[in-house]
């Protein structure tokens, strides 16, 4: 949310056609299975065109060292050729792991700037400093 506030960006929520379980252990099994199979769920929200955007921040939780499957669906649905991609993730201590690499593979014809991995709550000042460090133009 803080990134969108500071960049005056549009937030696009990715909603898969099937919700994940509210039970942590069940959800973890579902996600592990999807990731291991390379499954990309159908999105009921997040399919809108990205043609009017030149810079796209791509956020995901770190799920088992990679992207959440709905985010992978989004990446595979759209053409990012020539666009600037800026990744960010939330995590519980694992950082980016393979997330930046996975985004770079899916968006190989785009420009990718250094992302930010957030463990917990990030302050507005931290976001500002990161955006400044990567040369994001406000």
UniProtKB/TrEMBL annotation:
Superkingdom of source: Bacteria
Matches recorded under Gene3D superfamilies: 3.40.50.360
Residues of the Flavodoxin-like domain: 28-134
Matching SUPFAM superfamilies: Flavoproteins
Pfam families xref list: Flavodoxin_4
Cited PANTHER family: EXPORTED PROTEIN-RELATED, FLAVODOXIN-LIKE DOMAIN-CONTAINING PROTEIN
Record's protein name: Flavodoxin-like domain-containing protein
